Amino acid sequence: MSVTHDTRIQIRSPASSAQRQAARGWPDLNNPAAWIVAVILLIMPLIANGFFLIEIFATTLMLGTIALSLMFLAGYGGMVSLMQLTIAGFAAYMVAVFGTSDNANISLGWPWWLAVPTALTLATIFGTFGGALAVRTEGIYTIMITLAIGAAFYYFTNQNWAIFNGHTGINNVATPHFWGVNWRSDIPFYYVVLAIAALCYFGVDYISRAPFGLALQGVRDNPRRMAALGFNVNAHRVAAYAVASFIAGLAGVLQVWNYRQISPGSVSVGACIDILIIAIVGGITRPIGPYIGALVFVLLRTFALDFLVKIGLDGNRFRLLIGLGFLAIVFWSSDGVIGLWQRWRRSQRPQSDRPNGGRGHG
Amino acid sequence: MTRFVERHPAWALIVIIAVAVVLWLIFAVWPPGLEDAIGRKRVFLNAVFNGITLGGLYFLVASGFTLIFGLMRNVNLAHGSLYLFGGYVGYAISASTGSWILAFIVAFILTALVGILLQVLVFRRMEGQDLRQTMVTIGLSIVFADLMLWACGGDFYQIQTPSWLIGPVELPLITALKSSGEPVYLRYPLVRLVIFLASVIIGIAMWLALNRTRIGMIIRAGVDDRDILAATGVRIQIVFVLVFALGAGLAGIAGVVGGTFQSLSPGEDIRFLLASLVVVIVGGMGSIPGAALGALIIGLAEQLGSVYIPTYAIVVTFLIMVLVLALRPQGLLARR
């Protein structure tokens, strides 16, 4: 008995130290699948035409980045916030208000390099303020309060004409032109979106292993113990909201450049919940999850109509499809598509993993 | 009450003065200077009455929500869908049979059945997993919303008010004095007053049932500690099903009420979900008196806000929520 016990420990220890090393470095660097995905994303303009490039991939990356900010809060901070889209929408509105648009009486006409940082700062402040309210409560209360904030913002944009121009929103928002490039034309815009999504992805990945991220995960797992260790629990949570708000704000700026307009419909409660669906369907334990979820969501949203009509159903039932898919994911997997995939890999592993582990031991 | 006065004398004084001012505003004949400053008294009184009756409607929705949360720790984000479902059922019944009362009964029974199905088929399987339950209710609300859109379309429906409730009544409240010195009394739709009275009666009945009956004692014990309650031999699953059915049925009744004095359309489910969220956040989660107080505050704030500061009405509601969260995060009347 004791012998088997010892061997088990010996087998495990190199594996766990390897894991720890991987956790300290960039885990994606030695994963071939990650490199393949990166290369495909980089040469995407050669493969895909304008429709796929913007409507599918750029939209996926933008929605994925908003969902990433939710994943950061939910996965590392244990706070499910439904107001991430609201923060993105706020940033988008601010770009429209400070930048140039058709509504000359509202837009201040600042150049983009001034309007965008202002919008990001304000969105971060807005999100941090909302977060400071939300951290006064825990768990499911957080969902309710952030949902209430999101809904209040939606109704406010509908009613306010002085800044948000009511339910018509702000149209024809100017997009940046510099260095002789129109950054809203398909290919440059795709690369801008890709660069920002990558920045956010690696940023979240980095923070999750930095002292702040580790402390945040400690707060998620046991706030009282972290408080006893001398960490300011609420400050960490509010700081997490600030980081997430900045990420959501970046995605919001991209969104307003993409659609060139912003209206209350873009920040509706349904859209806020869509972000939650994206994050949950993709999986909220790893930063890649939201992007997978966003891809599934965008593909469904774009092609469900054709698909439903083809199999003889009413094409308008797209949301039913989304809802049922979401229910199925929540029912069968606690960690979305990633969880399903990992479970599938684990079921494959007993044949392949043991000799591998033995080699490492030898 | 006396304990509140002893512990917070300053707050008690402020509350008493505020109540006195409001009573004076309602009952006194306004001096001309005041009418010049904030408008006619009739407008004010109408806003107050609309706010109180809207509060009654909010209470009906939110009391079911807070009851379910209090006992099962289940944030039922599909509650708005139950509201809308009850409204559509009530519309179908009242349009086919012409009976308003029957609409209430059928809407209550059908939404209660949906609630029982939800509890038995869905929530019992994931007991104690708050977050997962919440996610499931979000998924369900999306599915329900789309099914109802499929079945009823995007039109507006309004439930016919029964003929014996149509028309205004004169209330013994003076809105103004005619130049001859003759008082003008406030006229207000009878149906809204009846509905408000009904929601007060339902609220009192719920309070009595919770505080004076055996089943109410079991439910209160379950709110405090459901594990110990289950350990003492109470069949807690049956209590859960009952409470869920009652909460859902109340949402159904509220749907018929809302369909009578407002209208039913896709999107109303989210509006009332938001309203009940704010109401229970302000009043205190899981507390029936809290839901009543919260509903009254939010209803009044919404109506007075939309009369006096029209563009920022929603902000007033939101500010109240922020204030409560900042000063008393557990809600005004919550115990913990």
TrEMBL record, chain A:
Signal peptide: none annotated. GO terms for cellular component: plasma membrane. Keywords: ATP-binding, Cell membrane, Membrane, Nucleotide-binding, Transmembrane, Transmembrane helix. It comes from the Bacteria. It holds the Pfam family BPD_transp_2. It is found in: Cell membrane. GO terms for molecular function: ATP binding; branched-chain amino acid transmembrane transporter activity. The chain crosses the membrane at residues 33-58, 70-98, 110-133, 140-157, 189-207, 238-259, 265-284, 291-309, 321-341. Its main location: membrane. It is a multi-pass membrane protein. PANTHER family: ABC TRANSPORTER ATP-BINDING PROTEIN, HIGH-AFFINITY BRANCHED-CHAIN AMINO ACID TRANSPORT SYSTEM PERMEASE. This is ABC transporter ATP-binding protein.
TrEMBL record, chain B:
Keywords: Amino-acid transport, ATP-binding, Cell membrane, Membrane, Nucleotide-binding, Transmembrane, Transmembrane helix, Transport. It is a multi-pass membrane protein. It comes from the Bacteria. GO terms for biological process: amino acid transport. One of its GO terms (cellular component) is plasma membrane. The keyword Thylakoid does not apply. It is found in: Cell membrane. The chain crosses the membrane at residues 12-31, 43-69, 76-94, 100-123, 135-157, 190-210, 238-261, 273-300, 307-327. Pfam families: BPD_transp_2 (PF02653). One of its GO terms (molecular function) is ATP binding. Belongs to the binding-protein-dependent transport system permease family. LivHM subfamily. This is ABC transporter ATP-binding protein. It comes from Bradyrhizobium manausense. The lineage of its organism: Bacteria, Pseudomonadati, Pseudomonadota, Alphaproteobacteria, Hyphomicrobiales.
